[in-house]
């Protein structure tokens, strides 16, 4: 009875402390030993994700998780992480929030994953935040730039990866303000935090009066004619897009049918050139002159050491899939996760994993700094402008960083790290 009472007190204390941390787990097995960590054995680490392998956001995005898995397979072939191999369970949610809740419940309650990595989508992942928190599952590097992931007090186990959409909106708007001054600007965004956060960044720089017309789309309706027609009627010469790839292509194609030729400026999540070219087919020339921003190396830079590494991994472990920004993104996420696993130590636990992310100091292929700290669960803090010219997407100008409030957009002078010689990070 004395042991039961002690254990009850410990569990009660854990519940009390949970609001301030991802939570202590009951490591007391009744005999003073340590309980098993979900998803972790002496030889394996099981993690999972939800991805739109099918559905309205599958174009391009369906390639992300296979690329991450390919990098994990590469690491596994080189000895794994502290002797453990990484198993990545990828569940298709079709970019449907109801499906997301179902597959994430399966990953946590049936598959007993150690962590959820890079779950994709603002509307989809928003619906599982509380479930993952309640079950004390680390929720790392969400594949979305929503500011919702950066709430360390409310969601201590959740971390972003992408630059948040407000940061990006400010950087895109800074370019418009500096280089396209005096032109009327319109804005099209997804009807969720993706669009709302992006618009907030644009208006932070241009002012609310600086956006002549704005509208939204829903992913279940592929007709954006009314929105693009509205922008044409308003006389907008610049259209900023907070769109997933399919809707970037729809916007470009619809504008062409309406003989409307504004300067399109697109979010990084919807601006990968190979993905757009594939969606547009014979009309891929509509991407010429497209402006955007990015924070990871571009596939067109064959001399970049990260591109060389990821191309090799893609060839050897991803079946030689068509190489594009989605593959680069998936492998960049996986590289960072391996770094964090190493930092978490051999005595791996969910708490040690989260503490490792919050310790920060990580470098990798990104052009801008990663901002992880106890008080900051956002990911990359900036981007560099890109432009499609001659069928090639290239960086130009400096890298910029800013915050999601009223801080200035300023140049970032740092340079990306170089990958280790064997392509696998070390502790």
Q: What can you tell me about this protein's structure?
A:
With about 425 residues, this protein is α/β, with parallel strands linked by helices. The chain folds into 2 domains: about 45-165 and about 300-380, 3-Layer(aba) Sandwich (Rossmann fold); about 165-295, Response regulator (Rossmann fold, 3-Layer(aba) Sandwich), CATH 3.40.50. Helices cover about 40% and strands about 15% of the residues. The protein is built from 14 helices and 13 strands. The protein has helices at about 1-15, 60, 65-75, 95-110, 120-125, 130-135, 165-180, 195-205, 225-235, 245-255, 275-280, 305-315, 325-345, 350-360; strands at about 45-50, 85-90, 115, 140, 160, 185-190, 215, 240, 265, 290-295, 380-390, 390-400, 410. Strands 7-6-8-9-10-11-12-13 form an 8-stranded mixed β-sheet, sandwiched between helices. Strands 2-1-3-4-5 form a 5-stranded parallel β-sheet, with helices on both faces. Strand 12 and strand 13 form a beta hairpin.
Mean pLDDT level: 92
The chain-level structural class is: alpha/beta
* Poorly predicted runs of 5 or more residues: 1-33
User: Looking across the biggest beta sheet, what order are the strands in?
Assistant: 7-6-8-9-10-11-12-13
Q: Kindly, what is the distance between the CA atoms of the first and last residues, rounded to a whole number of angstroms?
A: 44 Å
CATH superfamily of the largest domain: Response regulator
- Topology-level CATH name of the largest domain: Rossmann fold
The CATH C-level class name of the largest domain: Alpha Beta
Number of strands: 13
How many helices does DSSP assign? 14
> What is the element string, with H for helices and E for strands?
HEHHEHEHHEEHEHEHEHEHEHHHEEE
Number of domains: 2
Overall form: globular
